[in-house]
Protein backbone atom coordinates (compact mmCIF):
# COMPACT_ATOMS: atom_id res chain seq x y z
CA UNK A 1 0.00 0.00 0.00
CA UNK A 2 1.37 3.38 -0.90
CA UNK A 3 1.26 6.05 1.72
CA UNK A 4 -0.42 8.97 0.04
CA UNK A 5 -1.80 12.09 1.62
CA UNK A 6 -4.72 9.98 2.80
CA UNK A 7 -6.35 11.10 6.00
CA UNK A 8 -7.07 7.56 7.18
CA UNK A 9 -4.69 5.55 9.30
CA UNK A 10 -1.91 3.59 7.67
CA UNK A 11 -3.25 0.30 9.04
CA UNK A 12 -6.79 0.28 7.65
CA UNK A 13 -8.55 1.85 4.70
CA UNK A 14 -11.51 2.93 6.79
CA UNK A 15 -13.09 4.92 3.97
CA UNK A 16 -13.43 1.67 2.05
CA UNK A 17 -14.62 -0.29 5.10
CA UNK A 18 -17.34 2.30 5.72
CA UNK A 19 -18.94 1.05 2.49
CA UNK A 20 -19.53 -2.31 4.18
CA UNK A 21 -21.74 -0.76 6.86
CA UNK A 22 -25.18 0.15 5.49
CA UNK A 23 -26.14 2.34 8.45
CA UNK A 24 -23.16 4.62 7.88
CA UNK A 25 -24.72 5.70 4.59
CA UNK A 26 -27.67 7.35 6.32
CA UNK A 27 -27.74 10.88 7.60
CA UNK A 28 -28.70 12.19 11.03
CA UNK A 29 -30.40 15.58 11.32
CA UNK A 30 -29.43 16.08 7.70
CA UNK A 31 -25.72 15.63 8.40
CA UNK A 32 -23.32 12.84 7.60
CA UNK A 33 -23.60 10.23 10.33
CA UNK A 34 -20.42 10.27 12.43
CA UNK A 35 -20.68 7.27 14.70
CA UNK A 36 -18.31 7.57 17.66
CA UNK A 37 -20.06 5.31 20.16
CA UNK A 38 -18.69 1.88 19.35
CA UNK A 39 -17.66 1.24 22.96
CA UNK A 40 -21.40 1.30 23.60
CA UNK A 41 -22.37 -0.84 20.65
CA UNK A 42 -20.76 -1.29 17.25
CA UNK A 43 -22.40 -1.03 13.86
CA UNK A 44 -22.87 -4.15 11.75
CA UNK A 45 -21.38 -4.90 8.35
CA UNK A 46 -23.56 -6.10 5.49
CA UNK A 47 -22.06 -9.59 5.81
CA UNK A 48 -23.39 -9.99 9.37
CA UNK A 49 -26.83 -8.72 8.42
CA UNK A 50 -26.88 -11.10 5.45
CA UNK A 51 -25.86 -14.05 7.61
CA UNK A 52 -28.78 -13.48 9.97
CA UNK A 53 -31.21 -13.07 7.08
CA UNK A 54 -29.94 -16.19 5.37
CA UNK A 55 -30.12 -18.17 8.59
CA UNK A 56 -33.78 -17.33 9.02
CA UNK A 57 -34.59 -17.75 5.33
CA UNK A 58 -32.80 -21.08 4.84
CA UNK A 59 -31.71 -22.84 8.02
CA UNK A 60 -33.88 -21.87 10.99
CA UNK A 61 -34.55 -24.76 13.38
CA UNK A 62 -33.85 -25.50 17.02
CA UNK A 63 -30.60 -27.22 17.85
CA UNK A 64 -29.32 -30.71 18.61
CA UNK A 65 -32.20 -33.13 18.91
CA UNK A 66 -34.31 -32.73 15.79
CA UNK A 67 -33.39 -35.27 13.12
CA UNK A 68 -34.25 -33.30 10.00
CA UNK A 69 -31.88 -31.56 7.66
CA UNK A 70 -32.66 -27.99 8.79
CA UNK A 71 -31.81 -28.79 12.40
CA UNK A 72 -28.60 -30.49 11.40
CA UNK A 73 -27.62 -27.40 9.42
CA UNK A 74 -28.51 -25.04 12.26
CA UNK A 75 -26.58 -27.17 14.75
CA UNK A 76 -23.54 -27.34 12.50
CA UNK A 77 -23.60 -23.56 12.01
CA UNK A 78 -24.01 -22.90 15.74
CA UNK A 79 -21.24 -25.27 16.77
CA UNK A 80 -19.13 -23.89 13.94
CA UNK A 81 -19.58 -20.45 15.45
CA UNK A 82 -18.28 -21.82 18.74
CA UNK A 83 -15.13 -23.04 17.00
CA UNK A 84 -14.72 -19.67 15.27
CA UNK A 85 -15.00 -17.80 18.57
CA UNK A 86 -12.64 -20.23 20.33
CA UNK A 87 -9.99 -19.80 17.65
CA UNK A 88 -10.42 -16.03 17.70
CA UNK A 89 -9.52 -15.76 21.40
CA UNK A 90 -6.93 -18.55 21.38
CA UNK A 91 -8.96 -21.08 23.35
CA UNK A 92 -7.44 -24.54 22.99
CA UNK A 93 -10.82 -26.30 22.77
CA UNK A 94 -14.21 -25.06 21.43
CA UNK A 95 -15.83 -26.60 24.49
CA UNK A 96 -14.07 -23.97 26.59
CA UNK A 97 -16.48 -21.44 25.04
CA UNK A 98 -19.93 -21.00 26.59
CA UNK A 99 -22.34 -18.93 24.56
CA UNK A 100 -24.04 -16.17 26.54
CA UNK A 101 -25.88 -12.91 25.87
CA UNK A 102 -22.62 -11.08 26.42
CA UNK A 103 -20.36 -9.78 29.12
CA UNK A 104 -22.93 -9.10 31.81
CA UNK A 105 -24.37 -12.59 31.61
CA UNK A 106 -20.89 -14.11 31.46
CA UNK A 107 -19.70 -12.40 34.64
CA UNK A 108 -22.90 -13.32 36.42
CA UNK A 109 -22.37 -16.91 35.27
CA UNK A 110 -18.89 -17.03 36.80
CA UNK A 111 -19.90 -15.20 39.97
CA UNK A 112 -22.77 -17.60 40.55
CA UNK A 113 -21.63 -20.93 39.15
CA UNK A 114 -18.02 -20.66 40.35
CA UNK A 115 -18.40 -18.19 43.20
CA UNK A 116 -21.28 -19.78 45.06
CA UNK A 117 -19.57 -23.16 44.94
CA UNK A 118 -16.06 -22.14 45.89
CA UNK A 119 -16.14 -18.85 47.85
CA UNK A 120 -16.16 -19.05 51.66
CA UNK A 121 -16.74 -16.52 54.40
CA UNK A 122 -13.83 -14.09 54.54
CA UNK A 123 -12.52 -14.91 51.08
CA UNK A 124 -11.56 -11.83 49.11
CA UNK A 125 -12.69 -10.67 45.68
CA UNK A 126 -10.53 -7.92 44.21
CA UNK A 127 -11.85 -5.61 41.52
CA UNK A 128 -10.45 -2.33 40.27
CA UNK A 129 -11.71 1.22 40.53
CA UNK A 130 -12.21 1.46 36.78
CA UNK A 131 -14.57 -1.49 36.44
CA UNK A 132 -17.88 -1.32 34.63
CA UNK A 133 -20.83 -1.96 36.97
CA UNK A 134 -21.16 -5.41 35.43
CA UNK A 135 -17.79 -6.36 36.94
CA UNK A 136 -18.71 -4.98 40.36
CA UNK A 137 -22.34 -5.72 41.12
CA UNK A 138 -22.31 -9.50 40.42
CA UNK A 139 -19.38 -9.80 42.85
CA UNK A 140 -21.18 -7.79 45.51
CA UNK A 141 -24.17 -10.10 45.14
CA UNK A 142 -22.10 -13.25 45.45
CA UNK A 143 -20.19 -11.74 48.38
CA UNK A 144 -23.50 -11.13 50.15
CA UNK A 145 -24.53 -14.71 49.47
CA UNK A 146 -21.28 -16.36 50.60
CA UNK A 147 -19.81 -14.06 53.23
CA UNK A 148 -16.88 -13.25 50.98
CA UNK A 149 -15.67 -9.65 50.96
CA UNK A 150 -14.90 -7.30 48.07
CA UNK A 151 -11.84 -5.06 48.00
CA UNK A 152 -11.20 -2.31 45.49
CA UNK A 153 -7.90 -1.80 43.69
CA UNK A 154 -7.31 1.96 43.45
CA UNK A 155 -6.63 3.65 40.15
CA UNK A 156 -3.32 5.50 39.78
CA UNK A 157 -3.43 9.24 39.11
CA UNK A 158 -2.37 8.69 35.51
CA UNK A 159 -5.36 6.47 34.82
CA UNK A 160 -3.44 3.20 34.88
CA UNK A 161 -3.53 0.25 37.24
CA UNK A 162 -0.19 -0.53 38.88
CA UNK A 163 0.71 -4.21 38.85
CA UNK A 164 3.03 -3.94 41.86
CA UNK A 165 0.36 -2.23 43.92
CA UNK A 166 -2.16 -4.93 42.99
CA UNK A 167 0.32 -7.67 43.84
CA UNK A 168 0.80 -6.01 47.22
CA UNK A 169 -2.92 -6.35 47.87
CA UNK A 170 -3.02 -10.14 47.40
CA UNK A 171 -3.44 -12.10 50.63
CA UNK A 172 -3.90 -15.78 51.27
CA UNK A 173 -7.64 -15.10 51.32
CA UNK A 174 -7.71 -13.56 47.82
CA UNK A 175 -9.66 -15.91 45.61
CA UNK A 176 -10.77 -13.76 42.67
CA UNK A 177 -9.15 -10.98 40.67
CA UNK A 178 -11.92 -9.43 38.53
CA UNK A 179 -10.42 -6.94 36.14
CA UNK A 180 -11.17 -5.11 32.93
CA UNK A 181 -9.06 -5.98 29.92
CA UNK A 182 -9.63 -2.48 28.51
CA UNK A 183 -11.49 0.30 30.30
CA UNK A 184 -14.72 1.40 28.61
CA UNK A 185 -14.20 4.92 29.94
CA UNK A 186 -10.45 5.62 29.89
CA UNK A 187 -9.28 3.00 27.41
CA UNK A 188 -6.74 1.81 30.01
CA UNK A 189 -5.11 -1.52 29.14
CA UNK A 190 -4.12 -3.18 32.45
CA UNK A 191 -1.16 -5.59 32.37
CA UNK A 192 -3.33 -8.70 32.27
CA UNK A 193 -0.63 -11.29 31.57
CA UNK A 194 1.54 -10.25 34.52
CA UNK A 195 -1.49 -9.95 36.82
CA UNK A 196 -2.71 -13.41 35.82
CA UNK A 197 0.62 -14.93 36.74
CA UNK A 198 0.83 -13.17 40.10
CA UNK A 199 -2.83 -13.86 40.93
CA UNK A 200 -2.28 -17.53 40.27
CA UNK A 201 0.81 -17.49 42.45
CA UNK A 202 -1.37 -16.04 45.21
CA UNK A 203 -3.99 -18.74 44.71
CA UNK A 204 -6.64 -16.59 43.01
CA UNK A 205 -8.48 -17.03 39.74
CA UNK A 206 -8.49 -14.24 37.15
CA UNK A 207 -11.72 -13.09 35.54
CA UNK A 208 -11.15 -10.64 32.70
CA UNK A 209 -13.96 -8.41 31.52
CA UNK A 210 -13.22 -8.56 27.81
CA UNK A 211 -16.11 -6.38 26.64
CA UNK A 212 -13.70 -3.76 25.25
CA UNK A 213 -10.52 -5.84 25.05
CA UNK A 214 -11.68 -8.49 22.62
CA UNK A 215 -13.21 -6.23 19.94
CA UNK A 216 -10.16 -4.00 19.68
CA UNK A 217 -7.04 -6.09 20.34
CA UNK A 218 -5.50 -9.42 19.41
CA UNK A 219 -6.33 -11.74 22.33
CA UNK A 220 -4.87 -15.13 23.16
CA UNK A 221 -6.22 -16.63 26.37
CA UNK A 222 -3.59 -19.39 26.34
CA UNK A 223 -0.81 -16.81 26.24
CA UNK A 224 -2.48 -14.50 28.79
CA UNK A 225 -3.19 -17.57 30.95
CA UNK A 226 -6.43 -16.12 32.35
CA UNK A 227 -9.13 -18.32 33.86
CA UNK A 228 -12.17 -16.59 32.46
CA UNK A 229 -12.61 -14.06 29.65
CA UNK A 230 -15.98 -12.53 28.89
CA UNK A 231 -16.87 -11.65 25.31
CA UNK A 232 -19.46 -9.20 24.01
CA UNK A 233 -20.55 -9.87 20.42
CA UNK A 234 -22.45 -6.67 19.80
CA UNK A 235 -19.38 -4.56 20.54
CA UNK A 236 -17.38 -6.40 17.86
CA UNK A 237 -19.61 -6.00 14.80
CA UNK A 238 -21.89 -8.87 15.84
CA UNK A 239 -25.60 -8.91 16.71
CA UNK A 240 -26.97 -7.81 20.08
CA UNK A 241 -27.26 -10.66 22.60
CA UNK A 242 -24.40 -12.56 20.98
CA UNK A 243 -21.28 -13.30 22.94
CA UNK A 244 -19.73 -15.79 25.24
CA UNK A 245 -17.43 -16.82 28.02
CA UNK A 246 -14.07 -18.51 27.78
CA UNK A 247 -13.45 -20.67 30.82
CA UNK A 248 -10.46 -22.77 31.74
CA UNK A 249 -11.74 -26.30 31.08
CA UNK A 250 -10.99 -27.73 34.53
CA UNK A 251 -12.81 -24.81 36.16
CA UNK A 252 -15.84 -25.18 33.89
CA UNK A 253 -15.89 -28.87 34.85
CA UNK A 254 -15.72 -28.11 38.57
CA UNK A 255 -18.39 -25.40 38.57
CA UNK A 256 -22.07 -25.95 39.20
CA UNK A 257 -24.64 -25.10 36.54
CA UNK A 258 -25.92 -21.53 36.14
CA UNK A 259 -29.47 -21.53 34.75
CA UNK A 260 -31.42 -24.77 34.98
CA UNK A 261 -33.71 -26.02 32.25
CA UNK A 262 -33.85 -27.83 28.97
CA UNK A 263 -30.75 -28.89 27.05
CA UNK A 264 -28.34 -28.52 29.97
CA UNK A 265 -29.34 -31.84 31.55
CA UNK A 266 -28.45 -35.48 31.09
CA UNK A 267 -31.23 -37.05 33.19
CA UNK A 268 -34.01 -35.55 35.25
CA UNK A 269 -35.73 -37.31 38.14
CA UNK A 270 -38.29 -35.93 40.58
CA UNK A 271 -35.64 -35.41 43.25
CA UNK A 272 -32.46 -34.68 41.34
CA UNK A 273 -30.92 -34.16 37.91
CA UNK A 274 -27.61 -34.78 36.23
CA UNK A 275 -25.98 -32.34 33.88
CA UNK A 276 -24.18 -32.32 30.59
CA UNK A 277 -20.49 -31.58 30.29
CA UNK A 278 -19.41 -28.01 29.54
CA UNK A 279 -20.24 -25.94 27.62
CA UNK A 280 -23.78 -27.32 27.37
CA UNK A 281 -24.08 -27.50 31.16
CA UNK A 282 -24.28 -23.69 31.03
CA UNK A 283 -26.57 -23.33 28.01
CA UNK A 284 -30.11 -23.84 29.26
CA UNK A 285 -33.04 -23.23 26.97
CA UNK A 286 -33.03 -22.13 23.36
CA UNK A 287 -29.92 -20.16 22.61
CA UNK A 288 -29.46 -17.02 20.50
CA UNK A 289 -28.75 -19.17 17.48
CA UNK A 290 -28.94 -16.61 14.68
CA UNK A 291 -27.01 -14.10 16.77
CA UNK A 292 -24.07 -16.40 17.53
CA UNK A 293 -23.89 -17.47 13.89
CA UNK A 294 -23.90 -13.78 12.98
CA UNK A 295 -21.09 -13.23 15.46
CA UNK A 296 -19.01 -15.85 13.64
CA UNK A 297 -19.39 -13.79 10.46
CA UNK A 298 -18.35 -10.66 12.36
CA UNK A 299 -15.23 -12.46 13.57
CA UNK A 300 -14.40 -13.58 10.04
CA UNK A 301 -14.77 -9.95 8.95
CA UNK A 302 -12.41 -8.77 11.71
CA UNK A 303 -9.92 -11.52 10.90
CA UNK A 304 -9.99 -10.36 7.29
CA UNK A 305 -8.78 -6.96 8.52
CA UNK A 306 -6.42 -8.43 11.08
CA UNK A 307 -6.65 -7.58 14.78
CA UNK A 308 -3.15 -6.10 14.79
CA UNK A 309 -4.38 -3.66 12.15
CA UNK A 310 -7.52 -2.91 14.16
CA UNK A 311 -5.38 -2.04 17.16
CA UNK A 312 -2.95 0.08 15.10
CA UNK A 313 -5.78 1.96 13.42
CA UNK A 314 -7.46 2.80 16.70
CA UNK A 315 -4.18 3.81 18.31
CA UNK A 316 -3.68 6.31 15.52
CA UNK A 317 -7.23 7.69 15.79
CA UNK A 318 -6.91 7.87 19.58
CA UNK A 319 -3.66 9.79 19.47
CA UNK A 320 -5.09 12.18 16.91
CA UNK A 321 -8.26 12.71 18.92
CA UNK A 322 -6.49 13.21 22.26
CA UNK A 323 -4.15 15.81 20.74
CA UNK A 324 -7.00 17.60 18.96
CA UNK A 325 -9.23 17.69 22.03
CA UNK A 326 -6.44 19.01 24.24
CA UNK A 327 -5.57 21.62 21.62
CA UNK A 328 -9.08 23.13 21.89
CA UNK A 329 -8.97 23.16 25.69
CA UNK A 330 -10.69 19.91 26.59
CA UNK A 331 -9.57 17.83 29.56
CA UNK A 332 -8.94 14.26 28.42
CA UNK A 333 -8.98 11.52 31.06
CA UNK A 334 -6.90 8.37 31.13
CA UNK A 335 -3.36 7.32 30.27
CA UNK A 336 -1.39 9.58 27.96
CA UNK A 337 0.77 6.72 26.71
CA UNK A 338 -0.98 5.25 23.65
CA UNK A 339 0.60 1.88 24.40
CA UNK A 340 -1.40 1.78 27.62
CA UNK A 341 -4.78 2.76 26.24
CA UNK A 342 -7.32 1.82 23.62
CA UNK A 343 -9.79 3.84 21.61
CA UNK A 344 -12.22 5.15 24.23
CA UNK A 345 -11.61 8.85 24.81
CA UNK A 346 -13.45 10.46 27.73
CA UNK A 347 -13.23 14.19 28.10
CA UNK A 348 -14.70 17.32 29.66
CA UNK A 349 -14.95 20.45 27.56
CA UNK A 350 -14.67 23.73 29.45
CA UNK A 351 -17.85 24.16 31.50
CA UNK A 352 -20.28 22.53 29.08
CA UNK A 353 -22.05 19.64 30.77
CA UNK A 354 -21.66 16.36 28.84
CA UNK A 355 -25.40 16.06 28.26
CA UNK A 356 -25.58 19.50 26.77
CA UNK A 357 -22.47 18.84 24.72
CA UNK A 358 -23.78 15.55 23.37
CA UNK A 359 -27.08 17.20 22.49
CA UNK A 360 -25.31 19.73 20.30
CA UNK A 361 -23.13 17.01 18.78
CA UNK A 362 -26.27 15.05 17.92
CA UNK A 363 -27.54 18.01 15.91
CA UNK A 364 -24.28 17.82 13.95
CA UNK A 365 -24.75 14.10 13.22
CA UNK A 366 -22.03 13.14 15.72
CA UNK A 367 -22.97 10.25 18.04
CA UNK A 368 -21.11 10.17 21.35
CA UNK A 369 -22.03 8.98 24.82
CA UNK A 370 -22.49 11.38 27.73
CA UNK A 371 -22.90 10.10 31.26
CA UNK A 372 -21.20 7.86 33.79
CA UNK A 373 -20.73 4.96 31.35
CA UNK A 374 -21.83 2.41 33.97
CA UNK A 375 -18.74 3.36 35.97
CA UNK A 376 -19.96 5.49 38.87
CA UNK A 377 -17.05 4.37 41.06
CA UNK A 378 -14.60 5.64 38.47
CA UNK A 379 -16.54 8.91 38.00
CA UNK A 380 -16.15 9.62 41.73
CA UNK A 381 -12.42 8.97 41.43
CA UNK A 382 -12.20 11.39 38.50
CA UNK A 383 -14.26 13.91 40.47
CA UNK A 384 -16.86 14.45 37.75
CA UNK A 385 -20.53 13.49 37.56
CA UNK A 386 -20.18 12.43 33.95
CA UNK A 387 -17.92 12.62 30.94
CA UNK A 388 -18.41 12.76 27.21
CA UNK A 389 -16.92 9.73 25.51
CA UNK A 390 -15.94 9.28 21.88
CA UNK A 391 -14.97 5.75 20.93
CA UNK A 392 -13.59 4.37 17.71
CA UNK A 393 -13.69 1.30 15.54
CA UNK A 394 -12.58 0.03 12.18
CA UNK A 395 -14.96 2.24 10.21
CA UNK A 396 -13.85 5.52 11.79
CA UNK A 397 -11.59 7.97 10.01
CA UNK A 398 -9.59 11.05 10.91
CA UNK A 399 -12.40 13.02 9.24
CA UNK A 400 -14.75 11.62 11.87
CA UNK A 401 -12.46 13.00 14.56
CA UNK A 402 -12.36 16.34 12.75
CA UNK A 403 -16.17 16.38 12.72
CA UNK A 404 -16.15 15.71 16.47
CA UNK A 405 -13.76 18.56 17.14
CA UNK A 406 -15.72 21.01 15.00
CA UNK A 407 -18.95 20.05 16.75
CA UNK A 408 -17.39 20.37 20.21
CA UNK A 409 -16.17 23.86 19.35
CA UNK A 410 -19.62 24.74 18.07
CA UNK A 411 -21.14 23.57 21.35
CA UNK A 412 -18.62 25.67 23.24
CA UNK A 413 -19.60 28.74 21.24
CA UNK A 414 -23.30 28.00 21.76
CA UNK A 415 -22.98 27.74 25.53
CA UNK A 416 -20.54 30.61 25.72
CA UNK A 417 -17.81 28.40 27.15
CA UNK B 1 -35.38 20.81 15.49
CA UNK B 2 -32.98 23.67 15.85
CA UNK B 3 -30.85 23.84 18.94
CA UNK B 4 -32.20 27.17 20.00
CA UNK B 5 -35.69 25.69 20.27
CA UNK B 6 -34.41 23.32 22.94
CA UNK B 7 -31.97 25.74 24.50
CA UNK B 8 -34.08 28.89 24.66
CA UNK B 9 -32.24 31.97 25.72
CA UNK B 10 -34.08 32.02 29.02
CA UNK B 11 -32.80 28.50 29.77
CA UNK B 12 -29.22 29.52 29.10
CA UNK B 13 -29.72 32.62 31.21
CA UNK B 14 -30.99 30.64 34.21
CA UNK B 15 -28.17 28.12 33.68
CA UNK B 16 -25.46 30.75 33.70
CA UNK B 17 -27.08 33.00 36.29
CA UNK B 18 -29.09 30.66 38.51
CA UNK B 19 -31.61 32.30 40.85
CA UNK B 20 -31.85 31.23 44.47
CA UNK B 21 -28.85 28.93 44.16
CA UNK B 22 -27.82 28.90 47.80
CA UNK B 23 -28.29 26.87 50.92
CA UNK B 24 -30.82 27.77 53.58
CA UNK B 25 -28.80 26.45 56.53
CA UNK B 26 -31.68 25.97 58.96
CA UNK B 27 -34.38 25.05 56.44
CA UNK B 28 -36.77 22.60 58.11
CA UNK B 29 -37.66 21.04 54.78
CA UNK B 30 -34.94 19.82 52.46
CA UNK B 31 -34.29 16.92 50.14
CA UNK B 32 -31.56 15.74 47.75
CA UNK B 33 -32.07 13.73 44.62
CA UNK B 34 -29.92 12.76 41.70
CA UNK B 35 -30.47 11.56 38.19
CA UNK B 36 -28.13 8.58 37.87
CA UNK B 37 -28.49 8.70 34.11
CA UNK B 38 -26.39 11.82 33.76
CA UNK B 39 -25.23 12.60 37.26
CA UNK B 40 -27.44 15.62 37.84
CA UNK B 41 -27.69 16.44 41.56
CA UNK B 42 -30.15 18.77 43.21
CA UNK B 43 -30.80 19.69 46.84
CA UNK B 44 -33.88 21.81 47.50
CA UNK B 45 -34.38 23.85 50.69
CA UNK B 46 -37.79 25.14 51.80
CA UNK B 47 -38.81 27.49 54.60
CA UNK B 48 -42.54 27.67 55.19
CA UNK B 49 -44.40 30.42 56.94
CA UNK B 50 -48.01 29.84 57.86
CA UNK B 51 -48.67 27.40 55.00
CA UNK B 52 -46.90 29.33 52.28
CA UNK B 53 -43.43 28.95 50.80
CA UNK B 54 -41.56 31.77 52.47
CA UNK B 55 -38.19 30.89 50.98
CA UNK B 56 -37.05 28.24 48.57
CA UNK B 57 -33.59 27.59 47.16
CA UNK B 58 -31.44 24.91 45.60
CA UNK B 59 -27.87 23.80 45.19
CA UNK B 60 -26.54 21.20 42.82
CA UNK B 61 -24.75 20.46 39.64
CA UNK B 62 -25.75 19.12 36.29
CA UNK B 63 -26.74 19.95 32.77
CA UNK B 64 -28.31 23.20 31.66
CA UNK B 65 -31.78 21.67 31.57
CA UNK B 66 -31.71 20.38 35.15
CA UNK B 67 -30.12 23.49 36.61
CA UNK B 68 -32.24 26.03 34.75
CA UNK B 69 -35.38 24.10 35.61
CA UNK B 70 -34.42 24.26 39.30
CA UNK B 71 -33.71 27.97 39.06
CA UNK B 72 -37.00 28.76 37.34
CA UNK B 73 -38.86 26.51 39.75
CA UNK B 74 -37.70 28.44 42.80
CA UNK B 75 -39.01 31.68 41.30
CA UNK B 76 -42.21 29.99 40.24
CA UNK B 77 -43.21 28.58 43.66
CA UNK B 78 -41.99 31.26 46.06
CA UNK B 79 -44.87 32.75 48.02
CA UNK B 80 -47.31 30.05 46.95
CA UNK B 81 -49.36 27.87 49.27
CA UNK B 82 -48.70 24.17 49.52
CA UNK B 83 -51.77 23.35 47.44
CA UNK B 84 -50.74 25.83 44.78
CA UNK B 85 -47.26 24.32 44.70
CA UNK B 86 -48.60 20.80 44.41
CA UNK B 87 -50.82 21.93 41.57
CA UNK B 88 -47.87 23.57 39.84
CA UNK B 89 -45.72 20.46 40.24
CA UNK B 90 -48.50 18.39 38.67
CA UNK B 91 -48.94 20.87 35.84
CA UNK B 92 -45.21 20.95 35.14
CA UNK B 93 -45.08 17.16 35.01
CA UNK B 94 -48.05 17.27 32.66
CA UNK B 95 -46.25 19.69 30.38
CA UNK B 96 -43.14 17.49 30.39
CA UNK B 97 -45.26 14.42 29.60
CA UNK B 98 -46.71 16.31 26.65
CA UNK B 99 -50.18 16.03 28.21
CA UNK B 100 -50.78 19.65 29.10
CA UNK B 101 -50.47 22.42 26.56
CA UNK B 102 -48.09 24.95 28.04
CA UNK B 103 -49.98 28.08 29.06
CA UNK B 104 -47.63 31.03 29.09
CA UNK B 105 -49.73 32.89 31.65
CA UNK B 106 -49.59 30.01 34.09
CA UNK B 107 -46.07 28.83 33.44
CA UNK B 108 -44.25 32.05 32.69
CA UNK B 109 -40.61 31.45 31.83
CA UNK B 110 -41.04 27.71 32.44
CA UNK B 111 -42.71 27.53 29.02
CA UNK B 112 -39.18 27.67 27.66
CA UNK B 113 -38.69 24.08 28.82
CA UNK B 114 -41.45 22.67 26.65
CA UNK B 115 -38.91 21.95 23.90
CA UNK B 116 -37.48 19.26 26.19
CA UNK B 117 -40.59 17.14 25.62
CA UNK B 118 -39.18 16.05 22.27
CA UNK B 119 -36.11 14.62 24.00
CA UNK B 120 -37.42 11.91 26.34
CA UNK B 121 -33.99 11.31 27.87
CA UNK B 122 -33.79 14.94 28.94
CA UNK B 123 -37.26 15.07 30.52
CA UNK B 124 -35.77 13.41 33.60
CA UNK B 125 -33.30 16.29 33.84
CA UNK B 126 -36.10 18.85 33.69
CA UNK B 127 -38.32 17.24 36.34
CA UNK B 128 -35.54 16.38 38.82
CA UNK B 129 -35.83 19.65 40.76
CA UNK B 130 -39.60 19.30 40.90
CA UNK B 131 -39.43 15.74 42.20
CA UNK B 132 -36.97 16.97 44.79
CA UNK B 133 -39.21 19.86 45.85
CA UNK B 134 -42.16 17.52 46.23
CA UNK B 135 -40.09 15.13 48.34
CA UNK B 136 -38.83 18.03 50.47
CA UNK B 137 -42.40 19.11 51.19
CA UNK B 138 -43.21 15.51 52.13
CA UNK B 139 -40.49 15.71 54.80
CA UNK B 140 -43.25 17.32 56.81
CA UNK B 141 -44.95 14.45 58.65
CA UNK B 142 -48.48 15.46 57.69
CA UNK B 143 -47.82 15.34 53.97
CA UNK B 144 -45.62 12.24 54.03
CA UNK B 145 -47.21 9.25 52.41
CA UNK B 146 -49.74 11.29 50.50
CA UNK B 147 -47.33 12.31 47.80
CA UNK B 148 -47.82 10.60 44.48
CA UNK B 149 -44.70 9.47 42.63
Q: Termini of chain B, distance in Å?
A: 31 Å
Question: Which structural class do you get from the secondary structure elements of chain B?
Answer: alpha+beta
Q: Total number of helical segments of chain B?
A: 6
Count of spatially separate domains of chain B: 1
Number of strands of chain B: 3
Report on the biggest sheet of chain B. 3 strands, antiparallel
Distance between the termini of chain A: 43 Å
Summarize the entry for a quick read:
The complex is a heterodimer of chains A (417) and B (149). With 417 residues, chain A is an alpha/beta fold. Helix content of chain A is 41%, strand content 16%.
Task: Map the helices and strands.
The complex is a heterodimer of chains A (417) and B (149).
Chain A: H1 14-18, E1 27-28, E2 31-32, E3 34-35, H2 46-59, H3 69-89, E4 97-99, H4 103-118, E5 124-128, H5 137-146, E6 149-153, H6 163-169, E7 174-180, H7 192-201, E8 205-209, H8 213-216, H9 221-224, E9 228-232, E10 243-247, H10 249-254, E11 265-268, E12 273-275, H11 289-305, H12 307-327, E13 330-332, E14 344-349, H13 354-363, E15 366-367, E16 369-371, H14 376-382, E17 387-391, H15 398-414
Parallel strand pairs in A: 3-15, 5-6, 5-7, 7-8, 8-9
Antiparallel strand pairs in A: 1-2, 4-10, 9-10, 11-12, 13-14, 14-17, 16-17
Helix pairs in contact in A: 2-11, 3-11, 4-5, 12-15, 13-15
Chain B: H1 3-6, H2 9-16, E1 29-35, E2 40-49, E3 52-61, H3 64-77, H4 82-96, H5 104-107, H6 120-138
Antiparallel strand pairs in B: 1-2, 2-3
Helix pairs in contact in B: 2-3, 3-6, 4-6
Characteristic key phrases:
heterodimer, A: 417 residues, alpha/beta, Aspartate Aminotransferase, domain 1, Aspartate Aminotransferase, domain 2, 2 domains, seven-stranded mixed β-sheet, four-stranded antiparallel β-sheet, 15 helices, 17 strands, 16% strand, disordered N terminus, B: 149 residues, alpha+beta, Sufe protein. Chain: A, three-stranded antiparallel β-sheet, 6 helices, 3 strands, 43% helix, 18% strand, disordered C terminus
Amino acid sequence: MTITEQRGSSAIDADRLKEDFPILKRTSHGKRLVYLDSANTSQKPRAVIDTITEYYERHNANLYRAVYELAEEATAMFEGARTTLATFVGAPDPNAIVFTRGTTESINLVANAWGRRFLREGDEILFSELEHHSNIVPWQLVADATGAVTRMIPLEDDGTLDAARIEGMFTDRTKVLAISGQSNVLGTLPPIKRLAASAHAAGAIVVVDGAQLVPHNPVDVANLDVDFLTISGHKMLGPTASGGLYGRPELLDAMGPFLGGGEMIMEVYPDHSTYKAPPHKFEAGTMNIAEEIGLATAIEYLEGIGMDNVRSHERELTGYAVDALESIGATVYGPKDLEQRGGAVSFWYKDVHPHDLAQVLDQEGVCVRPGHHCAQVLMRRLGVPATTRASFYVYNTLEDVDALIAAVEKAGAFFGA
Amino acid sequence: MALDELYKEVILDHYKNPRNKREIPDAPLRCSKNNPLCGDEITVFVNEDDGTIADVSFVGQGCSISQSSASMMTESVAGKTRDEVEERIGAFRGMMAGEVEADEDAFGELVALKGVVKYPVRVKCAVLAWDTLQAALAEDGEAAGSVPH
